[in-house]
Design goal:
single chain; mainly alpha; elongated
Length: 105
């Protein structure tokens, strides 16, 4: 499993630490809420809405430097649109890695 990092954020920030803090704050503020909405939509078998949730979440996955995980999330999003949910477990593993990382930064 890949390890999340701040490389992309630091590149965008160009040394502006307040920018880094703002982006991290936005990610932390939105990520947990988006995951809860995703879980609710998924458990309600509303796969089309769950796909929309994954679409929002996958941008955070990318920003945290998780390129392979972004591919999984993209595939999961596309599968959900077809009501196929075989990548849910893999997606939730990615979510767990991100959740664990976010408490450290």
């Amino acid at each position: 499993m890949e390890t999340p990092n701040l490389s992309y954020i630091n590149t965008m920030a160009r040394g502006d630490e307040s920018f880094v803090e703002k982006i991290i704050g936005v990610i932390k503020g939105e990520f947990y809420q988006e995951i809860e909405v995703y879980k609710n939509n998924f458990s309600d078998r509303n796969f089309k809405l769950a796909a929309e949730n994954v679409h929002k979440i996958k941008h955070k996955i990318s920003i945290l430097g998780l390129e392979k995980s972004h591919v999984v999330a993209n595939n999961h999003e596309n599968n959900l649109k077809e009501e196929v949910h075989e990548l849910h477990g893999d997606f939730m593993e990615i979510v767990k890695v991100i959740e664990d990382y976010l408490v450290t930064i």
